[in-house]
Amino acid sequence: MGLLIKNGTVVTAEVEFKADVYADDAGKIRSIGLGLDKASGQDDVVDAEGQYVMPGAIDPHTHIALPFMGSVSCDDWYDGLVAAVCGGTTTVFDFVIGSKGQGLLEVLEPWMAKASGKAVCDYAYHMAVVDWSARIESEIAEVVRRGISSFKTFTAYKGALMLEDEPLFRCMRAIAAAKGILTIHAVNGDVLNALADRFVCEGRTGTDVHHLCQPAEAEAEANYRAIKLAELAAMPLYIVHTTCDAALKEQQTAVARGQEVYCETCIQYLLLDDASYSLPDFEGAKFVLSPPLRKVSDQAALWKGIQRGTVHTLGTDHAPFRFKDQKPMGKDDFRKIPNGIPGIEERVSLLYTYGVATGRISMSKLVEVCCSAPARIFNLGGRKGSISIGADADICVYDPRWEGTFSAKTQHSKCDYNCYEGWPRRGRPSSVFVRGKRVVKDGQFCGQAGFGRHLERPAYKY
Ligand code: URP
Ligand code: ZN
Ligand code: ZN
Taking the model in full, what pTM does it have? Predict the structure, then answer.
């Protein structure tokens, strides 16, 4: 069965234009133009009059069923990806994260098994390196051969995920030799631990100090260091969840010098701020993530970065932990609150409501940061992230006329709260397709567990 979407406004990262889109029964886009006729009576036909026809979004940063800080993020590969597609996202990148002492392949194989039979849309992986050994070094090239050409390291979470500078640099050189790209969580973990211990010694154990342990300058310092090490290792660097003006400035200095540095921010850093940490009744725990929410002035810097093109991608860092029984692990000590918040379903509609509908950014910019740039940076260009001939028919028909609110009551994530509870929402994905197959109809999920495939990606050519 083919797919014909008629009368919509097609949006690419460059332009918007009125056109019909036809995809064949192999799920590939075959024609884009005015007045296309359906090829057979079997085709799925959608009238998208008054709606946008955009590429299915790509979330470059998710943590599905992540074992972390003594708990496991509460969306599995079915629930998390149902939430994704209902929010217009048709490809997710998940981080494969093991523990110190483990080899990469030893972690990767069971991790990949978690998605099979469950994923409702396509997915790819970034392989985390949380330790360094001859064994890990020897496995890097094999991971790239298996189609995972992006890696992840952390400069924080000391004792668990953090790499010190020497192993970090060795790791960078090995990834560069295998022609991979490195993504990095860049906040100074030593500063963080020292400040956190100090607060606890002073009896300040509540959520109101979470963000004070990871000041913007600790993020900027780790950005600078990671950027310099990547320059020495002669490799591209992708900095995940950038939160603040100070870190952006470090990145922009490097880019101005000609270094290949990519900036990701996440939707929460554009819209939420550190006042949330002072909420009463442990409510601040709902917003405990790392790096923390920042100042309103940092939000403004990130919006400007999106407008000017110095922020390249927008992810979610979707890492949901329930308020009822997971966040309370740190009730008496904020250091033990599982770090992470949900957002996989809300990202596109939030960016539309508070970015496009407010006139901050164009619809093409939304497509650029949520679809095209993640595809291009992570070697999925031509396949995902664009409405173009030969690309997978991963398509989100976004209805800007729909009005509602964000709420835990209507979300698909298994998390028991929504960071944007009651916030007005403009528009929603009315129909969503993955490789031409319908997964959302009239805003409701109608896909199939196990339809999603792992996307193998080639090595880089730098
Ligand atoms: O708080 C967060 N972001 N939790 C997930 C792990 C990470 O650092 O991305
Ligand atoms: Zn992180
Ligand atoms: Zn993350």
Answer: 0.98
